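Design request, tokens follow.
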């Protein structure tokens, strides 16, 4: 639980502990990163507006060494902050003021998300794109593309059935899990980031296409 507001931090930590979670707290980004390395959390509840190193930078650095779910907490209501937080690998966000019940529900929803078991699933070649589910790796024209967990899971789902249009609801269920709740615009944020990393032009995409009124599909020829 990372928040510079002691009252909020300790209240939420107490509620989570009462609900059966083992909780460690940090008041700034440096302490959070050190704690994440030693504590190896399953979920990080991370305030966006931290002093010094903000939540966006903390999230970026977390993603270099942990696959923990990240729930970003922001007191700023403008959409830009939410999108920035999600684009660096946050899995969900909560806007202050939020109830203790809502935060606990979001944390539980993260832990219910299925972790993908890839087994020996075969390599998929789709034009210039290769998706390797076993290695959890994607390449474009032979070059490895660095993806967050969510970005890869979205690509994994879409590449299972090329040229099939998936609704946002279907993608949410497959990637976030059937018990997830929240704004489905998170899909658009991660798809936008995925397009950038694959080198797909958002104005005229050749791989990840928007199907208006439905959702997204991955074209096989790219």
């Amino acid at each position: 639980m990372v928040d510079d507001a002691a009252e909020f931090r300790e209240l939420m930590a107490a509620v989570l502990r009462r609900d059966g979670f083992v909780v460690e707290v940090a008041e700034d980004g440096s302490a959070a990163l050190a704690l994440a390395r030693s504590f190896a959390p399953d979920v990080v509840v991370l305030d966006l507006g931290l002093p010094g190193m903000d939540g966006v930078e903390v999230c970026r650095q977390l993603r270099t060494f942990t696959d923990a779910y990240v729930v970003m907490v922001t007191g700023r209501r403008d959409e830009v902050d939410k999108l920035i937080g999600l684009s660096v690998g946050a899995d969900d966000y909560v806007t202050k003021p939020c109830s203790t019940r809502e935060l606990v529900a979001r944390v539980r929803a993260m832990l219910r998300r299925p972790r993908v078991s890839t087994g020996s699933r075969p390599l998929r070649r789709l034009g210039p794109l290769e998706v390797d589910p076993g290695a959890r790796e994607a390449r474009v024209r032979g070059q490895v593309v660095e993806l967050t967990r969510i970005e890869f899971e979205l690509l994994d789902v879409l590449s299972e059935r090329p040229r099939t249009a998936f609704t946002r609801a279907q993608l949410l269920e497959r990637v976030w899990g059937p018990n997830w709740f929240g704004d489905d615009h998170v899909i658009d944020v991660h798809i936008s980031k995925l397009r950038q990393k694959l080198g797909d032009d958002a104005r005229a995409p050749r791989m990840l296409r928007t199907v208006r009124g439905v959702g997204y599909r991955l074209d096989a020829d790219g």
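Comment from the thread starter after seeing the answer: thanks! The domain at 124-218 is CATH 1.10.10.10 (Arc Repressor Mutant, subunit A).
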